């Protein structure tokens, strides 16, 4: 039988509307090719009338199967009645990963070939299509004999005989590439929705880049173009009234930041690098641009002449500046240059000059010696103060704890935020000296109090490398008469842990004498999750970077929810820092967070512990919440 015989045979039956539509499409395509061939001057050797070859005298299922075969699709046919059977075409067998004729298809076999997670859904689609006598479609996964998973998309049609339903036929194709592309589009859309601004790069109060961000920018400049770094130091010309609140200090910080941005413009990168310390990074001086020395002098002069308003009172700021000029690819790091600028500003203040200029970075040994001397002098002269901030137990909805915040006293006697000081102490290896000061003075205060509940003392992760720390802590507990069971030692900056063996020894030793262990800044350290595996942790504090914008950030909500579930599974209690509003508090409660701390629950106050007014639980920490203030 040749093609003409097949076409003649196909003409003996009336096609269905579906088959006529298919035939018309084939005819149009063939006619188009024919017209192009004639227009190009080709000789047509054989010509024939276009007739749909699918109109032969066969049943509907066979015609559908033939159409699927021409379109390189596979079919699964399931008919009912006396002649009912379940079969698939060779193309569908290969889609499922089986060679044609090698597998006898049964309902049980077919169900086992479909991915377990998709079986019920496929059955429901088929059942619904049968009950409604209406076509449907479904995409599902199949597991090939090799274990490979493929996505198959099938159109479900109801077969009829004499107007009554007689079976189902599924026409399908391998849709793996299309499904993976769809999943990737959905993933990218989700990632775009979840991606948010790096709040850790901006100070909340001033709106300027933080110390760490500016340090990185200086580091990048010294590797590439070089430039100039100005550090501006400000302090009130007169002692500010004691009645000023944290909100007043925050407002002053914001006003100083706005003035700084106005002066330097958009060509420079400026940031808040410490309490009363502002950094300005300048690119290499271009032709006709203002020299860095001139800008530094103008900054000092403008700040000194400007009148700031705080609580309807006029405030002037004494101002000095340190300028460091540096070339490209120098040995000094961004942190080193920042320290040089701070020291230059301090020298200008000490010597009574508005600015001091360093034409090149300081020598490494000189810089380190100055930093260490500054830290040791602060410790020896007790230039620290302890503040207490309340913490709410969300299960009881009442304050049951307080966190003790370390503050450093400035030259004018103001208590200012310690974050720049502690950063320097950690970098030059003097943080252990500060930790020991805090441990000794904190335990002394605890020993003088009622010790009615629990107290937490924080220790920098870097200090854990000292093998004598456990002995020092144990002796301080004995000397001040503190109950070990009333203490939890909280490790801050776990990413800084230099010796994991010493850290584990300290944690184990602390637990053996009856104290507990906690981790601060959880979720940001490189080894935070690994720490939970080997350190006997009882409490973690979720880092504030996930809390400050919690109710507006789906990404933060997802992270906090999963961290809480993880800790609950491991038997660890959870605290959240930097809680600013009632909405955040409600979300934390719904997640199962145990404790909340922040300006919503109470601002830090100078610590005053006495037997008459006992604090039930206290946390001692060497860090301040992110609302940094220019004056402290």
Automatic annotation (TrEMBL):
Transmembrane segments: none annotated. SMART domains: EAL, GGDEF. GO terms for molecular function: cyclic-guanylate-specific phosphodiesterase activity. InterPro entries: Cyclic-di-GMP_PDE-like, EAL_dom, EAL_sf, GGDEF_dom, Nucleotide_cyclase, PAS, PAS-like_dom_sf, PAS_fold_3. Coiled coil: none annotated. PROSITE patterns: EAL. Residues 368-618 form the EAL domain. This is PAS domain S-box-containing protein.
């Amino acid at each position: 039988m040749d093609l003409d015989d097949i076409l003649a045979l196909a003409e003996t039956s009336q096609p269905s509307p579906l088959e006529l539509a298919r035939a018309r499409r084939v005819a149009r395509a063939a006619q188009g090719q024919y017209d192009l061939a004639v227009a190009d001057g080709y000789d047509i050797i054989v010509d024939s009338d276009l007739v749909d070859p699918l109109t032969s005298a066969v049943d509907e299922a066979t015609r559908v199967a033939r159409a699927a075969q021409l379109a390189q699709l596979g079919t699964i046919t399931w008919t009912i009645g006396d002649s009912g059977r379940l079969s698939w075409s060779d193309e569908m067998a290969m889609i499922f990963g089986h060679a044609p004729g090698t597998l006898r298809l049964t309902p049980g076999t077919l169900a086992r070939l479909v991915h377990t997670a998709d079986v019920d859904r496929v059955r429901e689609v088929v059942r619904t299509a049968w009950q409604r006598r209406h076509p449907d479609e479904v995409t599902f996964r199949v597991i090939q004999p090799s274990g490979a998973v493929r996505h198959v998309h099938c159109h479900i049609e109801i077969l009829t005989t004499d107007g009554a339903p007689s079976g189902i036929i599924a026409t399908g194709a391998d849709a793996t590439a299309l499904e993976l592309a769809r999943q990737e589009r959905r993933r990218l859309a989700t990632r775009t929705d979840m991606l948010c601004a790096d709040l850790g790069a901006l100070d909340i109060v001033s709106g300027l880049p933080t110390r760490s961000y500016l340090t990185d920018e200086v580091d990048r400049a010294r590797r590439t173009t070089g430039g100039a770094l100005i550090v501006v130091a400000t302090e009130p010309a007169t002692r500010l009234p004691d009645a000023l609140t944290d909100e007043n200090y925050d407002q002053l910080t914001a006003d100083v930041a706005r003035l700084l941005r106005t002066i330097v413009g958009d060509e420079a990168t400026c940031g808040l690098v410490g309490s009363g310390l502002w950094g300005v990074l300048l690119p290499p001086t271009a032709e006709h641009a203002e020299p860095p020395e001139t800008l530094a002098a103008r900054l000092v002069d403008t700040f000194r002449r400007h009148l700031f308003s705080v609580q309807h009172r006029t405030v002037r700021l004494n101002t000095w500046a340190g300028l460091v000029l540096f070339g490209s690819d120098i040995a000094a790091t961004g942190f080193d240059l920042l320290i040089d600028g701070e020291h230059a500003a301090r020298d200008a203040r000490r010597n009574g000059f508005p600015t001091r200029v360093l034409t090149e970075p300081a020598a490494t040994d000189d810089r380190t010696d100055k930093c260490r001397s500054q830290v040791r002098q602060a410790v020896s002269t007790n230039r620290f103060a302890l503040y207490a901030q309340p913490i709410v137990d969300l299960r009881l909805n009442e304050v049951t704890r307080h966190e003790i915040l370390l503050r450093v006293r400035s030259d004018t006697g103001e208590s200012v935020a310690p974050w720049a000081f502690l950063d320097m102490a950690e970098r030059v290896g003097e943080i252990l000296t500060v930790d020991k000061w805090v441990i000794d003075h904190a335990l002394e205060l605890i020993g003088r109090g009622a010790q009615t509940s629990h107290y937490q003392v924080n220790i920098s992760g870097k200090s854990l490398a000292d093998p004598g720390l456990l002995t020092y802590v144990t002796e301080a507990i004995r000397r001040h008469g503190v109950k070990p069971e009333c203490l939890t030692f909280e490790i801050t900056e776990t990413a800084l842990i230099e010796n994991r063996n010493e850290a584990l020894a300290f944690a184990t030793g602390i637990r053996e004498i009856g104290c507990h262990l906690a981790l601060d800044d959880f979720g940001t350290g490189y080894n935070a999750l690994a720490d939970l595996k080997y350190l006997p942790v009882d409490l973690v504090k979720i880092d504030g970077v996930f809390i400050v914008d919690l109710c507006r950030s789906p990404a933060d909500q997802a992270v906090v929810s999963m961290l809480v579930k993880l800790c609950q599974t491991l038997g660890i209690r959870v605290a959240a820092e930097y809680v600013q509003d009632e909405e955040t508090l409600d979300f934390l409660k719904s997640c199962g967070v145990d404790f909340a701390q922040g300006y919503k629950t109470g601002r830090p106050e100078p610590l005053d512990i006495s037997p008459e007014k006992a604090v039930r639980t206290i946390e001692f920490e060497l860090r301040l919440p992110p609302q940094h203030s220019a004056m402290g």
